[in-house]
């Protein structure tokens, strides 16, 4: 056996070992992701399965745990029928959608304009103002809920749709996200447009915004989730039951005395979760790309 053949055999053995290690690493990664995904998906699937059971079946299947505790043996849609016919839950979903779309629209406009100003415009104390703005992100809503309510009452906006989202028009996270995205755009592109006579607004709408579309999608997704899951502020500011959002309506189902509402409760939770799951799946690739391109790795 020559030296060259021994060398080839050794290299082949090394290649097989490397391929085996890569295969094991990939398999372990897929298994880990599957476990993590199952952990996060289990509550959603359990709520969806429980929404297809009657309230009596949910209560009787709580203890001891068995397959009937998670899988409906007699699937029924009575909870959804009761939810959307008797409780008129579609009205609460519509109110939630109005509040979410309003907050997304206002936050995208203000965050884009403010983020571009902090990234490209030079004005006195720019960095100081930006730092103070970021500090407001650490102030919990619970600490300022009374002043916010007084401001909304002073403007006569209590129990109106704008009151649900106007206090969150200026979002520090959104401004920071858009600022980072605008800073990643080459300055040469804007300078060339400026030499061609483009105004600052033309540069903003024609050059800056089209180059941060993944970040805009990220901002839309995050703002929509935050508004869709809001509970405390709508509970305080919205005193009109016909304009109340879904999260508060779900909490009210649990507070009905001497009347278990577990079935409609699971149905409402499922109905509220489905739009978020669909939106997250649709905007997933833009969400990841937006965070990466914005320097938030």
Written description of the protein model:
With 297 residues, the chain is an all-alpha fold. The protein has 2 domains: 3-69; 83-293, MetI-like fold (Orthogonal Bundle), CATH 1.10.3720.10. The protein has helices at 3-50, 55-60, 78-86, 89-120, 126-135, 141-154, 162-165, 172-183, 187-195, 200-208, 213-228, 232-237, 246-254, 262-282, 284-293. α4 (89-120) crosses α8 (172-183). The radius of gyration is 26 Å and the shape is flat. It starts with a helix and ends with a helix. 27% of the residues are buried. The model has no long low-confidence stretch (mean pLDDT 85).
Structural features:
mainly alpha; MetI-like fold; 297 residues
Outline:
The chain has 297 residues and is mainly α.
Overall structural domain count: 2
Report the sheet with the most strands, covering strand number, pairing sense and barrel closure.
none
Shape, per Cα inertia axes: flat
CATH topology of the largest domain: MetI-like fold
CATH superfamily of the largest domain: MetI-like
The rounded Rg comes to 26 Å
Mean pLDDT: 85
**Total count of helical runs of at least 4 residues:** 15
Unreliable residue stretches: none
Following the backbone from N to C, one meets helices and strands in this order, namely HHHHHHHHHHHHHHH
Query: Which class do the helix and strand fractions yield?
Result: mainly alpha
Just give the CATH class of the largest domain. Mainly Alpha
Residue share in helix: over 70%
If classified by CATH, what would the architecture of the largest domain be? Orthogonal Bundle
